[in-house]
Amino acid sequence: MTASAAGALEWLKQVPREHGERVFAVDGQSGEATTYADLDRQSRHAAAALRRLGLRKGDRVAVTGDNSVAMARFYFGCLYAGIVAVPVNPGATDDEAAFFLQQSGAKALGFTAAVAARAGKWPAPRALELESFLAEADASSPDGVEPFEGVTDDDDLLLVYTSGTTASPKGVLHRYRDLVDNGRLFGRFVGLGAENRFYNILPMTYLGGYYNLLLLPYVCGSSVVIGEPFSAKTAFEFWKPVIRHQINTLWLVPSIISLILRMDRGEDGARWCRERVRLVLCGTAPLPLSVRRDFEKRYGVGLHENYGLTETLFLTANAPKLGVVDGSVGRLLEGVELRLVGPDGADAPPGADGEIVVRTPYLMRACQHTDEGRVAPHAPKDWFATGDIGVYRDGRLSITGRKKDLIIRGGVNIAPASIEELLYTNPAVQECAVVGVPNALTGEDIVAVVKLAPDAQFEIAKNELSTLCAKKLSKAKQPSEFVELPDLPRTASGKLQKHKIRAWLQTREARQPARPSAPAPALPPSFLKPSRVVSDIVQAMSIKYNTYVYEMRQRNEDVIVLSLGEAFFDIPLLSFDELPMPSGYHYSHSRGIPELRAKLAEYFLSEYDVSVDPQKEIILTAGSKIAIYMAMLAIINPNDEVMIHEPAWVSYAEQVKLCHGEPLMIPHGVSVFDFERYVTNRTRLIIINSPNNPSGKIYTLEELSHLNQLARKHGLYVLSDEAYSDFLLDPKQFISMGNLDPKKSHSLIVNSISKNFGISGWRLGYVISNPAIIDQILKLNQHLITCAPTILQHYIARNFDQVIQVTKPQIKDLLLRRRELAAHMDQLGLKYLAGDATFYFFVSIGASKLDCEAFCDELLFKRHVSTVPGIGYGPSCGRFIRVSVGAEPVERIQRGLREIADLIRRTT
Fold it and tell me: How far apart are alpha carbons 493 and 611 in whole angstroms?
């Protein structure tokens, strides 16, 4: 046998006998300790209670909740009883949870008290609140049961679902011997034992939190402190519990390492690592060389990478006895076989990159394909294709990329990671991403996108990198272009969003981003008169013309409405019966009800890869319009200047005036990269709207990255109005400011349930920012509106997923209609500003002798077609009109467009 002569179950029986009164688990909050003997006794009790419920060996029980000793005890109760645990993410939507429960065939659902409000409503045959269940089990089962009665090493222990980011999630089934023997083997290779105390900060409803940081320490005779899952919030005080609980073994992932490096400003962690930390392990994702070196320099301990998959468990490992080799994820574990396969299916030449194909004794027993409804069995003798690309040299494996990220240039397969590692050797490179972009001759070109150190000059760095690549890389691997971005977009977990970089490169203008230059001389001051504020603002142009429409319709006049700023979707009214009444009639939390804040945080994470703390970083408001106003009030002082890029939504400038600030309108022809010359010592805020109303423009990654750097350089805030974030056909084109400023230190993101979900009349919006700014907006919310409409908040929270399912297809249809109408305008000879998103066009009337207001008046009152004068969107927009295509059928819109084209011709 590969791990030891004892079988998996014999080993599990031996562990509590050998370690008895030694501490195994420590509650990270209370400090309460559970010994191996305690856990053995409690697991026997839990197993007996599960059997009294009628559950038997092989039955499946779903488990969800927060990291806790209670969850650990329940997992071990299932393990002792031969019951298959099915971890479910507590952040899953109701539909996702129902899917996992149905697909797994779970006969019960166990959940901790912390998530009882949500999980208790999931459709499980039997619901078990873990703390109560375990307390009753201890009281009712004084002797418990004999562990593993009737269970064998080849019985199933765990069914874990992979994430469904690129396809439907699949269920991976592992046996007792897979997890126990692989864990023992890994521990023996790395040198784990009773001296090691781990810190479990990975969610216990994922394999990392269940296996790496619970079951593996157990089979190795180590101890573990169970803490809450790592987040930006816990990163600030990461080392305090490590020191308090005497933790000496860390298992980190690259995104956690990066956050610790950014947020740790003290010396306690570095001192503790140098004096007491025995081992730091790292896995789950590629670790950039620069990040590893920064961590090792900062904390004085080595990072030991390992490699494995949910389907295979651990395949390789590094250990202190082996030393560290740059880029290596270690040596193969005993019993693991490796092949590197080329695109033709044959073995790759020695030293060449190839897809990693493995044969391991710990391969999953079966894969449950949820989209196909079938279970595919696997055997240890099977070769398994990992989808990763690697190279195997001198007995060590290095991961060079994912198969889906391969660049094929002139028929040659190129792994980006090998190029990236070379670029990281230049000290000017802080971050980089190498991607392939289409090329008609070679198939793909190689483009290296780099973020440089603050004092680096791009032209110098580009020359150095070109020379470096020419010396170290074959001609086929050398990048054809180097591109600078001040910030690279990342997911909430810290992974680079290469697909968004690739999409931007394919659509960008042929130019390099301007690096921030010295500030231009201050513009001549033009101070706002602080008195008679309201008299200085103008009526909202779009609302003014829509008011005309309402009045004309009251007189039964037929008007083609191309002025209304909303989408008319077919949305059924869902039931109000299960909403909490009579509380729905009353005030609610001024931050917004917790259920809806949690839903929106989940949505931002799943749709845009932006992590939001629903407790501290989001506030719900009565529509996004008041959200923008309160966001401005929270940060603008009298006479502060606010930069607004035209064409701009009609209320930005007027709201700035209401805040006693001064709007500084930047003409629509001015590039983002020229904004710095408008910055003065009074500039406080930059407002952008992406996707844009009225043009449909989506700000590019390059533009947003530049604005992010501009804000950092000059101490400015960026207010990013993302109210139309779902109104684009290709989601990869949309970048949230949260992707570039993940801590939200200088950005405020405003979004709209009303706009994005097609329910404009319900007036529900929200602001996302750092806790300090949200607390200021909270005070304004309390004084201006108290709370967003309570009953509507509960309605959306309850029906969130159903509303999305109804609106998403209609959004797509509307955008396809927009594309069709753009072609129709091209045929009519109408010109408009470039844009692909939202349901607006900003149409030029440049050839007409009429100004935009006179043009819209004649169009409305004589031709009964309502549009909005462009002058409302900024002084540079007087030769445009806004056309909205969300409220009328295509035929009527086309008729209205013909009237516009005809009026231009007749007034030229």
Answer: 8
